[in-house]
Amino acid sequence: MAKNLIITNGDSAAEILRAAFGGYDVLPWRDVLHEGPAPLTKDLHALSSIRAQYLSATYSVELKQTIGNFKDRDNLLRDWSKFESVVLWFEHDLYDQLQLIQILDFFASSQQNCDSIYIVQADEYLSEQNLEEIVHFDKLRKPLTSEQLNLARKAWFAFRQPTPESWVGLLKNDLNSLPFLKSAVQRMLEELPSCISGISRTEYQILHLLDCGVLQPEKLFSESQKMEEAAFMGDLFFSIKSQD
Questions:
Q1: What's this model's pTM, rounded to 2 decimal places?
Q2: 3-class SS of residue 76
């Protein structure tokens, strides 16, 4: 086991970070939390089981392999205190922000000293950086604060409620300690049916593009992404959405 641990959003970012910081273990989180169920559960293992079943069914991935990947991920996270330092590398989009608040909630509930945990909050996509650029982002590294832990715990609890009132209520709080959380909350809310049209933002964008004559699935996806403030939804789930 390396002396230090990096936790980041997925395999592409993990590969770059692993090359840039050779003395670190790198843990990719690999979960699209804004897709599918994330109910309140008694512990991380119970939620991971639910997530593994959903992702396996949705993306046609072998269930046993998915469960095994989550088990390995969760076990390494539970061992975080064995590392001299843990650095969280996450971006500004909804995908990353949900992963971040889940991980911070875990640390907050661990009842251990978190002084060895640091956070890099990037406003650019880590997977698109080269080695020189990714090292430059390390200057954003800051110690994790109690304010960030408390906010993440509140946000993660709100996200997992069966109805969106608590998630909406987050917008009444000071979210500045996690500077990209506000836009993530708002983007998630935009996937609810509009009180005017009855459709979500993604569905509206699809219909708008179809009306403009964009018919090819790949083009439809890329043009819809251009309408987003930050990357949202992978191409596979987008294709499912566009067929509904």
A1: 0.91
A2: helix
